[in-house]
Amino acid sequence: MTDVPFHGAARSSVTRSVLIHAALIVASILMLYPLLWMLSGSFRPSEEIFGSSSLIPSSIDIGAYWRGWNGLQVSFGTFFWNSFVIAVLSTIGNVMACSLTAFAFARLNFRGRNVWFAIMLGTLMLPYHVTLIPQYILFLHLDWVNTWLPLVVPKFFAVDAFFIFLMVQFFRGIPRELDEAAMMDGCSPWRIYWKIMLPLSTPVLATAAIFSFLWTWEDFFGPLIYLNDIQTYTVQIGLRSFVDSTGSSDWSALFAMSVLSLIPIFLVFLFFQRLLIEGIATTGMKR
Amino acid sequence: MTSQTSSVGAAVPAGGRSAPAGRTRRAFGQTTAGYLFLAPWLIGFFGLTLGPALASLWLSFTNYDLLQSPTFIGTANYVRIATADPKFAAAMKVTFLYVILSVPLKLVFALLVAMAFNRGIRGLPLYRAIFYLPSLLGTSVAIAVLWRQLFAADGLVNAALANFGIIGPSWISNPNYSLYTLVVLSVWQFGSPMIIFLAGLRQIPTDMYEAASLDGASRTRQFFKITLPLLTPVIFFNFVIQTIDAFKAFTPAFIISEGTGGPINSTLFYTLYLYQEAFGFFRMGYASALAWILVIIIAIFTAFSFLSARYWVHYDD
């Protein structure tokens, strides 16, 4: 990313820039310190974590990772697999269903389009709490509790209106001449969607996919409600029961599993930072 | 991605209509195709959003424990919430305190850092990444676990304070402090409003500052007369989004208090209380009423924000 100096007066005072850098470096350290402390805590004995503010362990010990991994009757491997499957399926569902909907809103002329679009925007504002309980009752009756279905299936019905909105904005920016020309050549709406729109929209599809993945990975409330069988736990729920079962006895193991649970997020951050930041800057996502 | 120029403007939903091209080319206007593409969303809207929302509205006037069928009790749930529920009062107090403290602090930090960045300093991508990371890790359980440990009696914060000879309390288990640890957590995650501010600052034309400098306006004056007014749409947007988000906060309070909202209800966020009622006591009717009250609170807040915006948000033309 290039960052062009903004004000012409940037070189006006060296002291000023030194001061800003000093402040930012101190702030950066403060921001990262807790995370680094957790990372270092995962490599040291529990009793050394307490009452210590240093980052350097007296000795490096990866035993906590092994203890944590097998700390519950089901290993964290299962939790990671569950989280991964749920996150990937949710991402696929979101991208497919939301792009279909967005294409209809952005490109097709049908009766009632504006009304539906307004309703879709309205659902953006609706807190999930009002649909929570009846949805739970519905999934309970379908016998879906303790399966991944309540967490995954809704995504295939484009319930995350936010992503629809994001994609509509992007699709509208694609020149209409392209699909009108295709239309003249007798292309069906489906082919226009599949062959023209989607290939031209990879940035927004990627942004939606990344945020879907992260949000599902981090989701705690959904799995907390729907998954009670330890075999079906996600990482977040596994971590929570690990807190409950270890209490405060084995903090290094708890830190070790916490670190592992953040690694996928960190990797996404490392590889897709540009998309994440542009996604937030252009749409105002909250996280 | 597209140009940066459209950035923050696009954050506010732009009105529905698109180009009038459809008028010329009626072939595009296949209603069937439109509804076929819309089908998954329509099913989701009726089956998973509208239907359940209406159902919960109805449930909020009933007594329902999942086992026996719901019995209609009129407004009894709402009456009890309003008059005879000390836990509701506690949850409201905690939630409002959390919103009032965390949102402004978070936004001030976000704006300050964005301003520092806006001078086009070296290493901006690195700083920005560092400041953004905590916000991305967000509501992970791992972060809540870490927070619990940071503010424990023998945690990092007290270890750091000990270096200055201060003996800190057990922040998490002290009802006077526990909520503030969650406020600190929220402020720590100022990364995404910061990025939105940064995008907003970049849209302010440079020549305005140049003209102001020529006229001898000080930097402070430039901030109050140019930056702040021109940034009000972005401040407004961040404020609304962050406030709604703060009303909905759940995970950190749940982990820090082990689901209890304790000590002495000091971290009983509204959503946590709702969760306890619904999935702890299976009082589904009562919890539905709580959910609708939350919706009403958020709606009133949003309406007031938009009404007040007329008086303080600066829009071009």
Concise description?
Chain A is 70% helix and 0% strand.
Structural commentary:
In chain A, α4 packs across α8 and α9 packs antiparallel against α10 (189-200). Chain A has helices at 14-41, 46-49, 63-69, 76-107, 113-125, 129-141, 149-152, 161-172, 176-184, 189-200, 202-218, 221-226, 235-246, 251-283. With 287 residues, chain A is mainly α. Chain B is mainly α and 317 residues long. Chain B is 68% helix and 1% strand. Chain B has helices spanning 7-11, 21-24, 31-59, 76-83, 86-118, 124-137, 141-150, 156-162, 178-188, 191-201, 206-214, 219-247, 251-256, 270-280, 284-312, and strands spanning 62-63, 71-72. Chain B has a two-stranded antiparallel ribbon with strand order 1-2. In chain B, β1 (62-63) and β2 (71-72) form a beta hairpin. The chains are: A mainly alpha (287), B mainly alpha (317). The interface between A and B is large, with 124 and 129 residues.
Secondary-structure topology with pairs:
The complex is a heterodimer of chains A (287) and B (317).
Chain A: H1 14-41, H2 46-49, H3 63-69, H4 76-107, H5 113-125, H6 129-141, H7 149-152, H8 161-172, H9 176-184, H10 189-200, H11 202-218, H12 221-226, H13 235-246, H14 251-283
Helix pairs in contact in A: 3-14, 4-8, 4-11, 4-13, 5-8, 9-10, 11-14, 13-14
Chain B: H1 7-11, H2 21-24, H3 31-59, E1 62-63, E2 71-72, H4 76-83, H5 86-118, H6 124-137, H7 141-150, H8 156-162, H9 178-188, H10 191-201, H11 206-214, H12 219-247, H13 251-256, H14 270-280, H15 284-312
Antiparallel strand pairs in B: 1-2
Helix pairs in contact in B: 3-15, 5-9, 5-10, 5-12, 6-10, 10-12, 12-15, 14-15
